[in-house]
Amino acid sequence: MSIKDTVNDARSKWMEGTGADNDVVISSRIRLARNLKGIPFPHFMSDADAANVIHAVRIAAENTELVKQVGAVEFTDLAELSSTERQILVEKHLISPHHAENIKSRAVILAPDESVSIMINEEDHLRIQCLQPGLELEETWKQADKIDDLLELTLDYSFSEKRGYLTACPTNVGTGLRASVMLHLPGLVVSKQIGQIVGAISQLGLAVRGYYGEGTEAYGNLFQISNQVTLGQIESEIVENLLSVTNQIVNQERSSREIIFRDNRQLLEDRIYRAIGTMRYARMITSQEALKNISDMRLGIELGLLKGLTFEKINELIILTRPAFLIKKAGQEMEAGERDVLRANIIREKLSEIKFD
């Protein structure tokens, strides 16, 4: 898939709705922070340093074995993309909001199915990201580790025998690994257990964030959970700890759904089918309202009520209704009200293709 296809297609590998525990876990992500030896961190380096990093990483990414691993990767200078196209990459979770802001001497390398993205000259020289659907943390970690090893055949990483991989942010020093999962937790939100769980998770050295990570809110009952510390732990421990906590949350979420469905079935069904009605017939709908209704519809799939709708379709709908994707589709800048109209049109069109049982 070319970068042109990427910014015009709302679909991505992580949206497939497959993988373990996909009724709760939308995706698993592993991100590795790496820097090149002898070159200052991005916020201190010169333009020449930045160019050298880009050149070195580009050559390393053309490694034959790496191409065999992920497919023919595509290198894109962020300066070649419009602000809207960069924001679409953020909306699809392929680059970070920080990476999209300052485009000077920044680039991204993408695998054809978008399961791998390598951000160049973000906070660190490299951010190697692997993203898979469902709860597949170990598989995703192994994929990221393999790509890291293949890049290191060419690149000389900044590494300390005492501290591990050296990174721009002290919280990433050590393994440089951030593991995260994206979860849909309507049961815990409705039962008002989410606050208690977030507090407990924080005590275990994990962070809970919204849909787009740090500094964002958990709209649509979507939460990201990730490790906060990388120093003093080996990679397998970080992954196993997050996997263990996630399994507990999955069980608690399922239990909450069962209780709510048992005790308030009519109210829950009414909520789900009202969401369908709004989405199928509304002429204007805001981004926040769309996410709320998408969450309710997804819950309908998870409870087996909406057999005509798939996880893949509902995940695609999230991206289709985001602001940058709407602007790209319209081919021009739009006011919020204009986006609300186009968003409603797209939703009606997509849902008209689906027969609800």
Mean pLDDT: 92
CATH second-level architecture of the largest domain: 2-Layer Sandwich
The unreliable regions are: none
Give the tally of structural domains. 2
* Structural shape: globular
Q: Fraction of residues in helices? A: 40-55%
What would CATH call the homologous superfamily of the largest domain?
Glutamine synthetase/guanido kinase, catalytic domain
* Cross-sheet strand order for the largest sheet: 2-3-4-5-1-8-10-9
Number of strands: 10
Rg over CA atoms: 21 Å
The rounded distance between the terminal residues' Cα atoms is: 34 Å
Structure notes:
The chain has 357 residues and is an alpha+beta fold. It folds into 2 domains: 3-257, 2-Layer Sandwich (Creatine Kinase, Chain A, domain 2); 265-352, no CATH class. Helices cover 47% and strands 15% of the residues. The protein is built from 14 helices and 10 strands. It has helices at 3-6, 47-61, 64-70, 83-91, 97-101, 137-152, 186-190, 194-203, 235-263, 265-281, 287-302, 311-320, 323-330, 336-352; strands at residues 25-34, 74-77, 107-110, 116-120, 126-133, 159-160, 164-165, 177-184, 206-209, 222-227. Strands 2-3-4-5-1-8-10-9 form an 8-stranded antiparallel sheet, with helices on one face. The protein has a two-stranded antiparallel sheet with strand order 6-7. A hairpin with a 5-residue loop joins strand 4 and strand 5. Helix 10 crosses helix 11. The two termini are 34 Å apart.
